[in-house]
């Protein structure tokens, strides 16, 4: 058996920047343990497997694996899969069946190897829990308790399909000097995947509104985390200074890793209730190859 694969960089238009992704475009017939083993072999934060959809109305079924587990939803794999499908099908919209639900992504081609995809969240973010122990959070992140909080935002646990501990910090300088305390980590960030999304506002940076870093999910630090940005939309919506209307944000992530990502966020509220959230970004094909399982 031979399997074609593609390597992409997501949330960027520059090769060797952004968040790497492996895509197996014809994965029909693969077993769960085979997909998990392939994802472990690539050893990227996620690998995407594309299948024939259950419904003829849809473009593809999508399954997402980290090196250690399958995820029901993840943002940078969804953007990357949408760009691959958009380029292959020459389509302006693709419909993807993910474990979290059906996702429709709008696609715009940049050139023959890259494009931009945006999609509405299949599940709006929900507050899962309060997250109030600032001393414990600060100790786990190697910062001071007074560093936590930004422009009225307070820590909380949210999920738009994958759960994240959202931690606002005072400014980008605090974000840069985070030093993880592994001994305290799992007991502090104890929900689901033990993942923390630390963010701040960036009023002094003209190209973006927010900056973030993501730690956890068995990958250490991740350069660009769409599912965490999707969860963050829930916290932003609680504090957004509008009861009706739309707000757009540009978020940078991965700068501290040398893999800068640019993630677009959008939310819309009606009668002070979040009714729409979306994320998007660019992706570029870096290379293609073949996995050879023949004897």
Task: Kindly summarize this structure in a few lines.
This protein has helices spanning 32-42, 75-89, 134-141, 172-176, 182-188, 226-239, and strands at 2-10, 19-24, 47-51, 60-65, 70-71, 93-98, 101-111, 114-120, 126-130, 156-159, 163-168, 196-201, 210-215, 221-222, 245-253, 261-270, 273-292.
CATH class of the largest domain: Alpha Beta
> How would the global form be characterised?
globular
Report the uncertain regions: none
CATH superfamily of the largest domain: Diaminopimelate Epimerase, Chain A, domain 1
Q: Give the strand content.
A: 35-45%
Radius of gyration from the CA trace?
19 Å
- Separate helix tally: 6
* Secondary structural class: alpha+beta
SSE succession: EEHEEEHEEEEHEEHHEEEHEEE
CATH architecture of the largest domain: Roll
The number of domains is 2
Strand order across the biggest sheet?
A: 1-2-3-4-6-7-8-17
The CATH topology annotation of the largest domain reads as Diaminopimelate Epimerase, Chain A, domain 1
End-to-end Cα distance, whole Å, is 9 Å
């Amino acid at each position: 058996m031979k399997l074609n694969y593609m390597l992409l960089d997501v949330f960027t238009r520059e090769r060797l920047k952004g968040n790497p992704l492996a895509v197996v475009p014809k994965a029909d017939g693969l077993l769960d343990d085979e997909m998990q083993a392939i994802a472990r072999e690539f050893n990227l934060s996620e690998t995407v497997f594309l299948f024939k959809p259950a419904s003829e109305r849809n473009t593809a079924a999508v399954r997402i694996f980290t090196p250690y587990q399958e995820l029901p939803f993840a943002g940078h794999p969804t953007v990357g899969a949408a760009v691959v499908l958009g380029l292959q099908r020459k389509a302006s919209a693709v419909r993807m069946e993910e474990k979290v639900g059906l996702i429709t992504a709008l696609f715009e081609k940049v050139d023959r190897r890259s494009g931009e995809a945006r999609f509405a969240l299949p599940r709006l973010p929900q507050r899962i829990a309060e997250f109030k122990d600032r001393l414990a959070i600060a100790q786990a992140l190697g910062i001071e308790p007074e560093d936590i909080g930004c422009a009225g935002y307070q820590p909380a646990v949210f999920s738009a399909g994958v759960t994240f501990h959202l931690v606002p910090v005072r400014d980008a300088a605090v974000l840069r000097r985070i030093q993880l305390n592994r001994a305290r980590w799992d007991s502090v960030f104890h929900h689901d995947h033990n993942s923390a999304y630390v963010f701040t506002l960036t009023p002094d940076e003209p190209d973006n509104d927010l900056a973030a870093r993501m730690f956890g999910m068995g990958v250490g630090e991740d350069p660009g985390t769409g599912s965490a940005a999707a969860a963050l939309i829930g916290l932003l919506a609680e504090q957004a200074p509008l009861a009706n209307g739309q707000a757009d944000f540009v978020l940078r992530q991965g700068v501290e890793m040398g893999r800068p990502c640019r993630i677009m966020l959008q939310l819309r509220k009606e009668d002070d209730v979040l009714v729409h959230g979306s994320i998007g970004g660019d992706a570029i094909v870096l290379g293609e190859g073949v996995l050879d399982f023949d004897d």
